[in-house]
Amino acid sequence: MGSKPILATDEYMHEPSDDPQFNESAYYNYVDRDSGFGVLIRMGNRVNEGHAEVTVLLYLPDGRAAIRFDRAEITGNDRFAAAGLAFEVIEPLRRMKVTFDGSAHLLAQGTDLADPKRAFTSSPVVPVRLELTYDNVVPVYGLGVGSGIQGAEDTIAVGHYQGPCTVRGWAEVDGSRRDVDGLGFRDHSWGPRKWQGPQYWRWISCLADERTGFVAWSQKIGDTRSPGNGMVLRDGKVELVTQVVVKSEYGPAPHYPTGMRVAMTTESGELVEASGTVFHNVPLRNRREGQVARLAEVLMRIDFDGRTGYGISEYHDRMVDGIPAGMYEV
Fold first, then answer.
1. CB count, 10 Å around CB of 270?
2. Which residues in 47-118 belong to E strands, given as ranges?
């Protein structure tokens, strides 16, 4: 797993650096393979800027989406708790609890968020509540040497780890409650987070069951494209990935991903392949100093290792004249 071990103390908060864009964030997702219902939750404490980025996103099976985004005021980096969202460490590196009690905009379809101002002014606001417990199914791991994201320390995180989980609890949108009992991923990172820094990244997750799945990560920062990394989970055993090649298909403008094929080379030299199709898409956006980064958060159905898995994949691109920076690259 690298020369810098992931410690139980890393589950808790870290001392901020002086970087104006220092960020400590945690992320949780879940996809129900039977209905297609999904959850994406993130909080990023940008304490040197005085706020936390809070995202609560629920993908509804009929194509609608409930979204809450806040830049909630914070004065310290002592906890993840803002705008009704909270993360609690139950057992370090084993069990976490996520709760939210607030409201969200209910969009007629996820892609309405391509125009946030219009989406937020024209959609109804409904109550949303949830309580989810995440239990690791394998030990957490990093995307590079130890707990960092190799090659992205100055723009994404100096510390990072993630892992697949069982997810249990409930989620309620506008009074309609769903029981949650399935699979998802979580991660935790700290360090500078400059959304406009990378040209693009691809984070693809898939779980078919508690013993079968993968994560693939690739990125380009400046003129440097990383070889990629991640992990393959088969028969309950993790093997790290040292190279990732993603070939994606896109629709017409505004050029959202519609499908992908990914080839992963493991540490033992084995080539492992998977292919997926997008069935739900919510595009998030971050603008700073005239530059736009788009994060298409898509639900995918993925064929892997003779099984059908599900997961949330993240297509981050700097947008140039309406074109995603990574659309024409392998």
1. 11
2. 51-59, 65-73, 81-82, 85-91, 95-107
Quote the radius of gyration of the chain (alpha carbons, Å).
18
- Closest Cα partner for 205 from 80, 130, 301, 292? 301
| Token pair for 78 | 């002592």
Phi, psi of 108 (to 5 degrees): -65, -30
Instruction: Show pLDDT as tens, one digit a residue, over the chain (330 residues).
Output: 344 688 999 999 999 999 999 999 999 999 999 999 999 999 999 999 999 999 999 999 999 999 999 999 999 999 999 999 999 999 999 999 999 999 999 999 999 999 999 999 999 999 999 999 999 999 998 865 544 555 555 566 678 899 999 999 999 999 999 999 999 999 999 988 876 778 898 999 999 999 999 999 998 888 888 889 999 999 999 999 999 999 999 999 999 999 999 999 999 999 999 999 999 999 998 888 778 889 999 999 999 999 999 999 999 999 989 999 999 876
**C-alpha closest to that of 274 among 300, 255, 256:** 300
Give exposure, 287-314, as e/b (b: 16+ Cβ within 10 Å).
eeeeeebbbbbbbbbbbbbeeebbbbbb
> What DSSP letter does each residue of 276-313 carry, written as one string?
EEEEEEEEEEEEETTEEEEEEEEEEEEEETTEEEEEEE
CA atoms within 13 A on the CB side of 309: 31
Tokens found for residue 322: 């309406």
Contact of 137 with 165, CB cutoff 8 Å: yes
The SS3 call for residue 50 is coil
Q: End-to-end CA distance of the chain: give it in Å, rounded.
A: 27
Q: Judging by DSSP bridges, how do beta strands 271-288 and 95-107 pair with one another? A: unpaired
The whole-angstrom separation of Cα 81 and Cα 309 is 32
